[in-house]
Amino acid sequence: xxxxxxxxxxxxTFFCGRGxxxxxxxxxxxxxxxxxxxxQVEAARKAIRAAQVERYVPEHERCCWCLCCGCEVREHLxxxxxxxxxxxxxxxxxxxxxxxxxxKFWWENKxxxxxxxxxxxxxxxxxxxxxxxxxxxxxxxxxxxxVIKEMAAQIREVEQSRQEVVRSVLExxxxxxPEEGSSAPRSWKxxxxxxxxxSQQPSNLDLPPAPELDWMETGPSLTFIGHQDIPGVGxxxxxxxxxxxxxxxxxxxxxxxxxPSYEEFLKEKEKQxxxxxxxxxxxxxxxxxxxxxxxWLPSFGRVWNNGRRWQSRHQxxxxxxxxxxxxxxxx
Length: 331
What we know:
Blueprint: E1 5-7, E2 12-14, H1 24-46, E3 53-55, E4 63-66, E5 71-74, E6 77-79, E7 82-84, H2 87-93, H3 96-109, H4 113-116, H5 123-170, H6 188-200, H7 249-254, H8 262-275, H9 309-330
């Protein structure tokens, strides 16, 4: 009987020796496994003639499983902030270790010989990929330079427009003189004083024009009751202190503390703790306000440091009996 062997593709143990690799199930599992890996290999072979270089992103750390070598392989090749797509997979497919493992895998699993060349990359193809990778890096650098130039042009354009706006604001404008009837420009000092005086006055440029009221038109007559300002108080429009900034007289006079004190809070906290205890516990109804003398002692037991309390009680009773007997003997 042939020894037991384990097939990693079928994931089962077989006892038929080498005959398992010729079975339909094994060949079907082998074909499905190779077809799952084939799209990645074909995409990597397309990158031999035209290598693509992109900016590095965390997704470029993705790995793929090499069925022939039985290990994970980096799919892309990253260096710094640049990534060459499918560079890691092509480097693995062109290595002598992968070629040796592929020949062994094809021999042990009896796969189709025509498909083996698809999973291998010759040294000539890998050298061609290196040349295309150099060209891809050069084209990527040219694109980055163009992007930087475009951004610099946009920055210069924005800066130039900003300077034009500032210059148009700072330049003195020509104002016609009503006395001479000419359009002679004012001096910079006069313009500056006008801007200063106009800035101190409220601007009415953005306000809509006030409607003209016709006081002579007919209609219901209104009675004027006078201004409603409180004398000596003022309001926020006259520069007085706003009402929400004025302190209350009661607060100023009494300076009373709002809410319970800290001691009251602790007492209430202790009461809440006692409410959670059982009502029929020992000492629940004890009158804490009652006064006792300094010589008060319980009618049983004593202060004990070890053992149980009932032992001290019996000891107290024994000593009390002995003391009573000694008193009777003396008498």
